[in-house]
Write a structure and sequence with these properties.
flat; 3-stranded mixed beta sheet; 366 residues
């Protein structure tokens, strides 16, 4: 399951977004540090393909892929030095797959900005600096231990020492590791530390309602330009926390009409999840049987046995073959029976790389 950690300065709309995404009722108030304990919520991934498969197969139940969101307290300038409450909760998002950095891109005199003015470029830099200093503490602690072990010839310590020293040098300057060209070996050496500034980032630009249809207005444009200038491997998704809250209260049939009235094609949630999947190179495959139709999440490049293991370790261990048909062909043939009759079901072996939208029946023997 994809797990996204929501971060940002206080009063930027983090908890409002979390409430809308998960309908969890997290405390959302117009004052700093309202989130004093982390909130965790899970939402289903919207996927029209799943609905089509369900209509064809008519299973006893349908299970979509899920995304988990973790919301922590706002991180003000100075969090790494003990300001505010957020820094003590960073450990809760170290195990997430990626970070969603919520950035305020709207003007509203009734909603106080913790730094006095709305400036998304500054806010992005402030939070990046605080995350870098949090990572620095982790690296310094590990570096001290590795240096001592390396002096007595410890091979593991010697192998990771170079990566730690390089990371330490950048972080000490307040530079996030997103901007440091690390090779695969260095990233592997740093992976156990679960460093925040090595995680992929998705910027969620919280804009005024009227700016949704125009890609977010001047503040969102400035944020995109700053990310581009920094050559940061990140995406920017425009949303309105207030609109997402209203959408969460509507019936599915009413949501499309409401979005159309705003001049936008999809909800912020949908776009964030799609961007998160793209950012992390995730793909979806399906299993479709009378008992259950289900969406499963894998990484781009995963082979059939790895995909089978997502369902159950026994499937991977005893993998024989994967009976596979593309989603489009499955729908065109109205299910497994028609697909077999038309000869479009393929028998794939251990080297097959699963494609997005594949409908698969795994054969295994344990």
């Amino acid at each position: 399951m994809l797990t996204l950690g929501i971060v940002g300065l206080p009063n930027v709309g983090k908890s409002s977004l979390f409430n809308a995404l998960t309908d969890a009722g997290a405390d959302a108030a117009n004052y700093p540090f309202s989130t004093v304990t982390p909130n965790v919520g899970t939402v289903s991934v919207p996927d029209a393909r799943l609905e089509a498969l369900t209509e064809i197969v008519k299973p006893k139940r349908t299970v979509g892929a899920t995304v988990q969101f973790v919301d922590i307290a706002g991180l003000p300038k100075g969090a790494s030095r003990g300001e505010g409450l957020g820094n003590q909760f960073l450990s809760h998002i170290r195990e997430t797959d990626a970070l969603v950095h919520v950035v305020r891109c709207f003007e509203d005199p009734d909603v106080e900005h913790v730094m006095g003015t709305v400036d998304p470029v500054r806010d992005r830099e402030v939070l990046e600096f605080e995350l870098a200093l949090a990572d620095l503490a982790s690296v310094e602690k590990r570096l001290d231990k590795s240096r001592r072990a390396a002096r007595i010839g410890d091979k593991d310590a010697l192998a990771e020492l170079g990566a730690l020293e390089r990371a330490n040098s950048a972080l000490a300057e307040g530079k996030a590791l997103w901007h440091v060209p690390l090779d695969a070996a260095e990233r592997a050496a740093l992976a156990p530390l679960q460093l925040l500034t090595l995680k992929p980032v998705l910027y969620a630009a919280n804009v005024a309602d009227r700016e949704l249809a125009s890609a977010g207005g001047a503040h969102a444009t400035a944020l995109r330009e700053a990310v581009t200038r920094a050559h940061e491997p990140a995406e920017v998704v425009v949303f309105s926390a207030r609109i997402e809250g209203e959408l969460a209260e509507l019936a599915p049939a009413e949501r499309a009409e409401f979005l159309q009235s705003l001049g936008v094609e999809s909800a912020g949630l949908d776009r964030m999840i799609r961007a998160g999947f793209h950012l992390l190179g995730l793909r979806t495959f399906f299993t479709a049987a009378e008992k259950e139709v289900r969406a499963w999440t894998i990484h781009q490049g995963d082979t059939a046995p790895v995909a089978a293991g997502v369902i159950h370790s026994d499937f991977e261990r005893g993998f024989i073959r994967a009976e596979t048909v593309s989603y489009d062909e499955f729908v065109a043939c109205a299910g497994w029976k028609g697909a077999r009759e038309k000869g479009v079901v393929r028998s794939e072996g251990r080297e097959y790389v699963v494609r997005d939208g594949d409908v698969i029946l795994f054969r295994f023997n344990v």
